[in-house]
Amino acid sequence: MDDPETDRENRRWVRDLAAAGPVREAACRELYPLLLRIAKSEARRRAPVLELDGPELEDIAHQAAADALMAIGERLDRFRGEARFTTWASKFVIFNVATKMNRHFWRRHEVPYDQEDWSRITSRFDVGPDDEAQAREFAAAVSTAVEENLSERQRIVFVATVLNGMPMDVLADELGSTHNALYKVLFDARKKLRAALVASGYLPAAPQMTARNSTPLSDGSSA
Question: Measured between alpha carbons, how far is 190 from 201 in angstroms, rounded to an integer?
Fold first, then answer.
């Protein structure tokens, strides 16, 4: 930071939150109300779309602020001082509000994550069938590819996140897994499905790298 006062303030936050005992507790008591104000503001902004209000909204804000405070303390080494510490910290609470409100929306509406409506798949694969018959044919092909090529775990994750649009962190809670673990499952599932749909002629093959358009190596030779 170019501002010496802001730089000093940033160093104070990092130093005090990294300390132990009363110093850290005092810093947390100072930071928490700021995080809570941001959480309440963000929750109110999102409330109309997600149909949340009253005590439920207040509870989300408090949970988001508390979780953000913990995450900030665990990631102090990632703060580079390129912005105000409080600006950097606010991103954690905004993320937590979004995550918690998405979870509440899905749980309140009781959307089954394994519900299979394959008619919606054409929009997920960026294809544009010319007519309804083609759309039905493509949906059936994807359904068949899922049944024939994916493991049960891959099918569940694919259906929930790609077909039904469930947020990955919400599904991770439902399955007792982690965000990163499910991303790996989904990556492998999509790779298998694309290969199957390419082989059956429903998706175009990815362009092959040739000697003419290959990426040069650092020594000037080509791949």
Answer: 16
